[in-house]
Amino acid sequence: MVDDAYKKLHPILSEVTQTYVELYTNRPNEKNRLELIKLEALLHEKLQKLQKVRDENE
Predict the structure, then answer these.
(1) Average pLDDT score over residue span 41-54
(2) Residue 35 and residue 27: Cα distance in Å, rounded?
(3) Is the pLDDT of residue 39 over 60?
(4) CA torsion 57→39→27→10, rounded to 10°?
(5) 36 contacts 19 by C-beta, under 8 angstroms
(6) pLDDT tens track for 5-37
(7) What pLDDT is recorded for position 30?
């Protein structure tokens, strides 16, 4: 279970993490695992872009 303070500080990341956990737990097969790896890479890329924009605006 995720800490409430963490959920408040990082609501999107918290929900994405929960989704990954549910998908791995409820439907553990190779196709889902590969799809999750692709989604994780996409999420990482988007988060890097957001961080870059934030850093430029500070």
Answers:
(1) 89
(2) 12
(3) yes
(4) 0
(5) no
(6) 777 777 888 888 888 787 777 666 777 778 888
(7) 74
DSSP 8-state code for residue 28: -
Nearest to 11 by CA among 30, 19, 35: 19
To which residue do tokens 């994405």 refer? 16
Tokens of 22: 């549910």
Give the pair of three-digit tokens for residue 14. Answer: 């918290």
- 40 vs 32: CA distance, rounded Å: 12
Structural contact between residues 31 and 4, judged by C-beta atoms closer than 8 angstroms: no
pTM above 0.70, yes or no: no
Tokens coding 44: 């990482």
The CA-atom distances, in angstroms, between 38 and each of 4, 25, 30, 35, 49 are 28, 18, 13, 5, 17
